[in-house]
Amino acid sequence: MIKKTLAALSMSFLLATTAVADNPAELNDLEIAHVAYVADNIDIRYAHLALAISANAEVRTFAQTMINDHEAVNTAALALLAKLGAEAQDNFLSQTLNANAEGIINDLAALRGADFDRAYAANELGYHKAVNDLVENTFIPNIDNAEVKALFERGLEIFKVHEGHAQMMVDQLAE
Q1: Is 99 exposed, middle or buried (0-12, 13-18, 19+ CB in 10 A)?
Q2: Are the C-beta atoms of 50 and 120 separated by less than 8 Å?
Q3: Which domains does the chain have, with CATH numbers?
Q4: Given this model, what pLDDT does residue 175 score?
């Protein structure tokens, strides 16, 4: 049962980025910025849930790191948008991410103990793999503004570390 839940949670984000009619490669810089902002906020929500539910020190430390790092990236992104006199633009992908996150949060919130910890870790791994792939292979090559591109490149370095940490958690929490 738990393995099916883990697989479903991990795949939900992946499906969100591929099961849409529109093409993420066609988003403009301001739409890409909005997707990144939404993705960061979603991971912050997952982390707050982990802090509320988990008693596992490793999971709690990881969750606090997610909050700190994703809030810092969002702060930098908002500052850059203000400097550029621009506003992020909502789009199909950010809307899909938000819609799918609600289901994942509900599924995670129903779990407790080791089941929650394993599901949270698996979701974080799947989420970071998918986001990192999207940022590295779709967004960065298509961003026009050099400052926006540089911010995404710095963020990707941080989020690849998150992916590695999530992989270690999944391995440690495996049954």
Answers
A1: exposed
A2: yes
A3: 2-11+27-173 (1.20.1260.10)
A4: 64
pLDDT on residue 89:
94
Residue 65 burial (CB count, 10 A): 15
SS (H, E, C) 75-101: HHHHHHHHHHCCCCCCCHHHHHHHHHH
Contact indicator for 112, 124 with CB cutoff of 8 Å = no
**Is the backbone of residue 20 left (phi > 0), alpha (psi -120 to 50) or beta?**
beta
Can you give the pTM of this predicted structure? 0.88
Token reading at 139: 């967004």
- Report pLDDT digits (tens) over 139-160: 999 999 999 999 999 999 999 9
What span, in angstroms and rounded, lies between the C-alpha atoms of 54 and 96? Answer: 27
* Residue 110: CB atoms within 10 Å: 11
In the three-class reduction of DSSP (H, G, I as helix; E, B as strand; rest coil), residue 139 is classed as helix
